[in-house]
Amino acid sequence: MAWYKDWFNSPYYHILYGQHNDAEAALFIDHLADLLQFKNHQFALDLACGKGRHSKQLANHGLVVTGIDLSEESIKAAQAFAADNLNFEVHDMRKVYKKMNFDYVFNLFTSFGYFANPDDNIATLTAVKDNLKVHGCFVQDYFNAPCVINQMVSHNEINTGGILFKITKEIKEKKIIKTIAFNDQGEHYQFNEEVDLFTLSDFEALYKQAGLKIEHIFGDYQLGAYDPNQSKRLILISKPL
User: Fold this and answer.
1) What does pLDDT average to in each consecutive run of 10 residues of the chain (241 residues)?
2) Would you state the pLDDT for residue 42?
3) 3-state secondary structure at position 199
4) Intra-chain end-to-end CA distance of the chain, in Å
């Protein structure tokens, strides 16, 4: 089984990353709404939506939002927030969801770069383009690889939710490999994350191949300027060619 199917379906994923809360998501979406001038009843697709924290904020701005994710457990949890303009479905982002249906497609919180086969990255971005209307907009939020490399801590511990997570990181074959080990109720668990260290130039090449053109680049959730060496995030806003 691919690592992300196992880990993202685990309740421990949400315990570990629970500090990324609705307030953080709301701040980011508020800034995007100001920049992109969302209009009521525009259609938005949230790719790899998890439990829907960004989807909810997008719906609060009047968009008609569909959140999709491969994790059945995440979608089950997200469906608690379903509303007239917000729904969730299990779906693989490598496949087109609804052709030329969406004004916006969002892929947030480094929900990309997971695949062992590089062709799957192109398949995902091509599906993004195909999901978009002719003048639609794609927003992708990824970690900034140079900053991750420069500031990487090889070992650390996070105590949250009553669990001590022991985390090790290494860089191998242009991927950041994270091993997450912990004990809970007398059982030992270990999960891995393997995410591509894509740089801006990597994305430019991928987008060109998929038929997308980058129009804006930002370096944080306040949509500040992108600095290759200092920015925590790489936020790309593109449109179909």
Assistant:
1) 86 83 91 98 97 96 97 93 97 98 97 95 98 98 96 95 96 95 96 96 98 98 96 98 94
2) 98
3) coil
4) 35
Contact by Cβ (8 Å): 66, 60: no
Nearest to 236 by CA among 105, 70, 43, 103: 105
Helix (H, G, I), strand (E, B) or coil at 136: strand
| Distance, CA of 239 to CA of 157 (rounded, Å) | 40
3-state secondary structure of 218: strand
* SS3 assignment, position 8: helix
| HSE-up (13 A, CA, CB side) for residue 173 | 5
- DSSP characters over 165-191: EEEEEEEETTEEEEEEEEEETTEEEEE
CA 92 to chain centre: 13
Q: What angle do CA 28, 31, 35 make, to 5 degrees?
A: 140
How many other C-beta atoms can be found within 10 angstroms of the C-beta atom of residue 134? 7
Which tokens in the block code for residue 180? 């997450």
This prediction's pTM = 0.94
Q: Tokens standing for 159?
A: 């105590």
* Residue count (the chain): 241
Helices 200-210 and 119-131 cross at an angle (nearest 10°) of: 60
